[in-house]
Amino acid sequence: MVAEHTVKAYDEELDRMDNAILEMGGIVEQQLADSILALVRRDDELASRVITEDRRVDALETEIDQLAVRILALRQPVAVDLRVITASLKVASDLERMGDYAANVAKRSIAIQEIDPIRLTHAISRMAGIAQGMIKDVLDSFRDRDVERAMAVWRRDEDVDESYNSLFRELLTYMMEDPRRITPCAHLLFIAKNIERIGDHATNIAEIVSYVVTGTPVEEERPKGDVTSFHQADDDTEAAAS
User: Whole-structure pTM over 0.85, yes or no?
Assistant: First the structure.
């Protein structure tokens, strides 16, 4: 909440929206952590729980959408309040996509349960750790309306991209060395790409936080380090399959 209003119910509605977004983000953050744990431990029960949790994320997005429509209709917000409400809709959409990607990681981890493990899963864990930290910090920046912290997240997206590029090259090498590794490596490539996309959406939220506080879009060009041959269409197809 950015300012106190004369109508107490208005403040309560804005607080409810903020709290719903933070709850949604907390679930997504845990989804990512659990999906990676399921991959490392080869725990299909935990992976299944991650997939099921995605329903809660979807339900919260619907709740935020409905609350935003109600506030727009009844309160006719302007200036900062209007930016907060429209930004909240965008943040909820980004979080919903992140939840889809985390669920995809869990689905992939189930798919490779019966395949011999590849030691590169620890590199994926490190990459996911960076993305998870980005989620936490960008949610904190949204809660506190902290532009400096949001932009620190924005700059860390390059770290995720660099990790993905490194994994991409290593996994391709594994596949070329031994055709029996093609299937598990392909699954791990998609897992890594899903994590990279989660980092992109966290970066989107960082830009949204900056806009809410300053009233102007981020003019600096977004740092981008993904140099692989995967395209956006591939990412959208993967997320839509969740």
Answer: yes
